[in-house]
């Protein structure tokens, strides 16, 4: 196609085999977009296209990513807020006709049927080699992830275990929980012997760093997680899928967590919406 469509925070350039998305660096542009810079999305990584009304007199062109095609979206596991979804382009409502034209043109070029991709089709984002979590610093050199614990935030369990280094070859997956939700963290899932299990709580797990109080923001921790996931998948094709739900827990542990959540709610430290959402998430893990 070779055409360009400019939206509020990004410009999409349509090519015969891909869509090149260039994100702006303005003050109002989400930090995740600024961190990503630009991304080339092959058409085979797109399952469909929609055009829907947006907020405040806008329309939204949305390229639906094919499952398993993009390490960033796999790591995010549906946790991104809609306005930080890099596959959405918001435009003024008066450009709806133009947006519909491009949506139709793009649909005509798509060949993917929505089935999961066997490999990542989108390159992982360029990421910082390290970021600060609440209880330590995470770094990644392309072959191994290292966690170095902080004096103030790390639990005694992590201090006893000491700083940790995890070669990608020894991992089976990556679990990212948004810092914008209750109990945000980045957990590395290890290839453990049969019967072995990682601690249920991230603050007690030496293979996890926890977020909060401004530490582990989405624009740093999510691209980091996607980069690790992409390296893991490249090292062991067919392995390393990001998990969207933690392993099933003991019912007694779930009950304790809900009780603690209720105490936080009563104390005003958790909103009604956060309480309801987290309680539902915990119950789903039974």
UniProtKB/TrEMBL annotation:
InterPro entries the record matches: DUF4429, SHOCT
Boundaries of every DUF4429 domain copy: 12-106, 138-228
Domain SHOCT intervals: 256-283
Q: Which domain of life is it from?
A: Bacteria
Question: What protein name does the entry list?
Answer: DUF4429 domain-containing protein
Source organism of the structure: Streptomyces nodosus
């Amino acid at each position: 196609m070779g055409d360009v469509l400019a939206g509020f925070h990004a410009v999409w350039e349509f090519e015969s085999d891909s869509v090149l998305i260039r994100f702006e660096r303005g003050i109002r542009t989400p930090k995740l977009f600024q961190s990503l810079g630009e991304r080339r999305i092959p058409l085979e990584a797109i399952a469909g296209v929609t055009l829907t009304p947006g907020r405040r007199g806008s329309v939204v062109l949305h390229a639906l990513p094919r499952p398993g095609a993009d390490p960033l979206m796999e790591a995010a596991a549906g946790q991104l807020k809609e306005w930080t979804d890099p596959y959405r382009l918001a435009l003024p409502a008066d450009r709806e006709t133009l947006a519909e034209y491009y949506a139709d043109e793009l649909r005509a070029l798509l060949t993917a049927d929505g089935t999961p991709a066997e490999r990542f089709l989108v390159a992982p984002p360029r990421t910082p080699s390290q970021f600060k979590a609440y209880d330590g610093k995470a770094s990644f050199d392309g072959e191994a992830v290292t966690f170095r614990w902080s004096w103030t935030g790390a639990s005694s369990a992590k201090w006893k275990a000491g700083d940790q280094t995890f070669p990608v070859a020894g991992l089976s997956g990556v679990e990212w929980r948004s810092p914008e939700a209750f109990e945000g963290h980045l957990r590395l899932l290890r290839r453990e012997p049969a019967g072995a299990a990682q601690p249920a709580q991230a603050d007690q797990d030496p293979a996890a760093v926890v977020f909060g109080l401004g530490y582990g923001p989405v624009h740093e921790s999510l691209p980091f997680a996607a980069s690790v996931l992409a390296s893991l998948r490249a090292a062991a094709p067919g392995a390393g899928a990001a998990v969207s739900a933690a392993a099933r827990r003991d019912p007694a542990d779930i009950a304790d967590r809900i009780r603690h959540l209720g105490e936080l709610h009563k104390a005003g430290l958790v909103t009604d919406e956060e309480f309801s959402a987290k309680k539902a998430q915990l119950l789903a893990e039974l």
